[in-house]
Specification:
Blueprint lengths: L6 H17 L7 H24 L9 E9 L4 E7 L1 H24 L4 H20 L3 H10 L1 H11 L4 H30 L4 H4 L6 H18 L8 H8 L2 H26 L1 H6 L1 H20 L4 H30 L2 H35 L13 H4 L1 H15 L5 H14 L3 H26 L6 H4 L6 H19 L2 H18 L2 H4 L11
Antiparallel strand pairs: 1-2
Helix pairs in contact: 1-2, 1-4, 2-3, 2-4, 3-4, 3-11, 3-15, 3-21, 3-22, 4-5, 4-6, 4-11, 5-7, 6-7, 7-9, 7-10, 9-11, 10-14, 11-14, 11-15, 11-22, 13-14, 13-19, 14-15, 14-18, 14-19, 15-17, 15-18, 15-21, 15-22, 17-19, 17-21, 18-19, 18-21
Length: about 525
């Protein structure tokens, strides 16, 4: 019933139309109208995810909800959209996050309200476009398009050093994408089409694959971000408003891992196999070294920013550990679990990290000078007990407590890595120790002990909108932590097919026959 509706186009263009309407409200004297339009659009987009989910067939790896229209005839560029299980989950996550950010912005933003709401609606549209694009140029347009509203968001509503952070964010992510564009143009020249799926069947030599791999690597590694191109993220998180930090953590970091899954692995399987150990080492550096950096942070937002880099290292490890598992042990089920764990880790991290960034923003808004320093707080649980209880849940999810979202993906990646390399699994497992160290230590100093100062003594507990946001996020943490089957069922066949596409021919020949279902 829903399959023939252009749901993907609606999900892209509805927020863009909403952004235009919001901007047309004009100055802040119409701020309530701007807020109302933004909330209506965000709620409508979230509701549209229901038919998108119900109409999706998880038993096939074929792209669904296909839309294809000739866009630029002379260059054979198409407006082509479609989703598989992986991109479906990410699109729903994008709309969920967009709704939370708009709700949080109702009270958080007092100036340039229309522009603030429009920036998030535009970002939402661009990110959905990235996940839905089936044409390389369309993908690139959406990929670059999302930088503009985020740049403006940091630069206009950020903290004191916002100009530096916004320019650094833009330059890192924009320059990283230039080589990706070159790679996409080369692949289109070889295949005669900009259709992304046509790239999967190109007979590329090893040298070609290796050069293309590094071209894609720079763009995707900056987005994740991976060490050593991670330095833009702490600055961007620290200076961005709370909503901007949520979008960065919950959505933009996932685009790098999604790029590896959609481009690097299925298009360049030989290069990915040969360079898998490089990616694993970089991922482990992110997990351990960046985790150690998080421990010494004095700014709460910087601590969670470094925590995000460390946790996304688990996702990139899960992607490339699949090659080592298959090459060493031919244990396809473990390799499959590694990839699936990477996808689930992306969703889990969005809930926990996004919730903590929101909470830190609420704390800073209550403090007279908007301090984010840990030493400025203490005893918050005495004045905000409900907030303290919710924040503890999200902190425990960030640590990876069983029963919460943060446990599932990490567990799957670490257990699958142990099938072939115990020491890699052990190194990856340090994320549990390091995560507990910096997260719980921060929680103890901020929430427990005597009330630190007069500001904390005047804090009011969560209001209705803040409580609504945290209830929704807590539901996501428990839902994924206790019933990951809801996501596994959707991504299972798509992940299996991706794994088969991503294996070099020699490895694929040795895989069990039962996995021919995914080919």
């Amino acid at each position: 019933m829903f399959y023939h509706l252009p749901l993907l186009s609606i999900l892209i263009w509805l927020p863009l139309a909403g952004a235009v309407l919001v901007l047309m409200t004009g100055s802040d004297k119409n701020a309530n109208l701007a807020r109302g339009i933004a909330v209506a659009v965000a709620v409508s987009s979230m509701l549209l995810c229901i038919p998108l989910y119900l109409g999706f067939d998880p038993s096939t790896f074929m792209m669904q909800y296909r839309e294809d229209y000739l866009w630029i005839e002379s260059y054979k560029i198409h407006y082509s959209l479609g989703v598989d299980g992986i991109s479906l989950v990410m699109i729903i996550l994008t709309n969920f996050t967009g709704l939370l950010v708009i709700l949080a912005g109702i009270e958080a933003t007092k100036r340039r309200v229309a522009q603030y709401m429009a920036s998030f609606l535009t970002m939402q549209a661009m990110i959905i476009g990235v996940f839905a694009s089936m044409d390389a140029i369309l993908f690139y347009v959406f990929w670059e398009g999302m930088l503009i509203p985020m740049y403006l968001n940091i630069g206009m509503w950020g903290s004191s050093n916002r100009e530096y952070a916004s320019i650094k964010f833009f330059l890192y992510t924009f320059l990283g994408s230039i080589l990706m564009l070159v790679a996409l143009l080369y692949l289109a020249q070889r295949s005669g089409s900009f259709d992304i799926q046509s790239f999967y069947h190109l007979p590329l030599g090893f040298t070609e694959q290796k050069l293309l791999f590094f071209a894609f690597l720079l763009a995707f590694a900056v987005k994740v971000p991976m060490w050593p191109v991670h330095t833009w993220l702490p600055d961007a998180h620290t200076e961005a408003p709370a909503g901007g930090s949520v979008v960065l953590a919950a959505l933009m970091l996932k685009l790098g891992v999604y790029g590896f899954l959609r481009f690097s692995m299925p298009i360049l399987p030989v290069a990915c196999q040969e360079l898998a150990w490089l990616m694993i080492v970089l991922s482990l550096i992110a997990i351990i070294y960046i985790g150690l950096i998080a421990i010494v942070q004095t700014d709460m937002k910087k601590l969670i920013a470094y925590s995000s880099i460390s946790h996304m290292g688990i996702a990139t490890l899960g992607c490339f550990m699949a090659y080592i598992i298959v090459e060493d042990s031919h244990h396809l089920q473990a390799a499959y679990m590694s990839l699936e764990g990477a996808v689930i880790q992306m969703v889990a991290h969005a809930f926990g990290s996004g919730a903590m960034f929101l909470g830190i923003g609420w704390l800073a808004a209550r403090y007279h000078n908007h301090s984010r320093l840990i030493k400025s707080y203490g005893g918050v649980a005495n004045t905000m007990p409900v907030f303290a209880a919710f924040f503890m849940l999200f902190a425990l999810s960030n640590v990876g407590l069983p029963g919460t979202a943060g446990f599932v993906g990490e567990f799957m990646v670490i257990v699958s890595a142990m099938r072939s390399h115990f020491w890699v699994a052990l190194a990856a497992g340090t994320t549990l120790i390091l995560g507990a160290s910096y997260t719980l230590w921060m929680y103890k100093r901020v929430f427990f002990g005597p009330i630190a100062n007069d500001d904390v003594a005047t804090f009011k507990d969560l209001n209705g909108l803040e409580l609504t946001n945290y209830i929704l996020l807590a539901g996501g943490v428990f839902w994924l932590g206790l019933y990951p089957e809801a996501i596994i069922r959707v991504v299972q066949v798509s992940v299996g097919h991706l794994l088969m596409q991503s294996m070099p021919y020699g490895l694929a020949m040795n895989l069990p026959k039962e996995f021919s279902y995914f080919v």
